[in-house]
User: Which sequence fits this backbone?
């Protein structure tokens, strides 16, 4: 018996990184999983992993969560394929170029808000009536330590994550009457962005691990996904409006993000 037997989940951005880890763990725990993914390569590989490797009940849908009709379509496709939806994992996100706040453009902020805040808003609104029909559900949104540290070069990202925290708390408060639980995860793991930074900067992985009290970097499937399973399962039936840091303790000491070449970046402009 899995912790998610009989549950139906939609995982956005589930083809790589943390989303992939969650999709894999959900299938292992017995959930039927719809993955909404934009990257063609990820679409192919995650379907092979979930269906052929793990033998799970899973489907993969190519979708751009920045487009309202596509994220709404992903919810409807989940219901049509599996008969309902119990779990919504709003993981998908698109990052803008890492530039100084004064060089961030309206277009960058707009794109970031669409991939994070608007996508989450649309997905939650679309899933709500279907969750009510099932007697309730669990929604997991994602927060970031970048908000707490005021991370350099990520202003639009931090704005979006801050807004998602407000959305999560409001939905948890209002939708509790439908037995819909809404929580936040704040992860730090070896996801897609981490892997790129590690490849571009020798020693990055070791430096980041040293910042954490647990002295290691998190694995998406083994360290982050189990907490998502907890929040999605009946074990968390009395947990809502909560923020859970899953970062090896990094939220306690925080981190310094000021780049060493600020003067050079100022000259580069937007």
Assistant:
């Amino acid at each position: 018996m899995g912790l998610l037997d009989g549950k139906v989940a939609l995982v956005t951005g589930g083809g790589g990184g943390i989303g992939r880890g969650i999709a894999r763990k959900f299938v292992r725990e017995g959930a039927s999983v719809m993955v909404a993914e934009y990257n063609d390569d990820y679409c192919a590989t995650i379907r092979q992993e979930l269906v052929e490797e793990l033998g799970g009940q899973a489907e993969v849908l190519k979708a751009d969560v920045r487009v309202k009709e596509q994220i709404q379509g992903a919810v409807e496709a989940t219901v049509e394929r599996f008969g309902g939806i119990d779990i919504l994992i709003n993981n998908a996100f698109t990052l803008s170029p890492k530039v100084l706040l004064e060089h961030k453009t309206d277009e960058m902020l707009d794109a970031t808000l669409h991939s994070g805040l608007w996508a989450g808003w649309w997905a939650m609104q679309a899933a709500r009536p279907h969750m009510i029909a099932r007697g309730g559900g669990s929604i997991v949104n994602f927060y970031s330590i970048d908000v707490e540290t005021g991370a350099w070069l990520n202003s639009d990202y931090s704005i979006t994550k801050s807004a998602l925290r407000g959305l999560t708390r409001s939905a948890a408060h209002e939708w509790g009457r439908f037995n819909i639980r809404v929580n936040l995860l704040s992860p730090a793991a070896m996801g897609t962005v981490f892997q790129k930074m590690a490849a571009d900067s020798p020693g990055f992985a070791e430096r980041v691990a040293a910042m954490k009290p647990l002295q290691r970097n998190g694995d998406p499937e083994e360290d982050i996904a189990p907490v998502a399973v907890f929040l999605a399962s009946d074990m968390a039936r009395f947990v809502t409006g909560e923020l859970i840091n899953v970062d090896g303790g990094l939220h306690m000491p925080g981190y310094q993000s000021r780049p060493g070449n600020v003067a050079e970046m100022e000259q580069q402009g937007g």
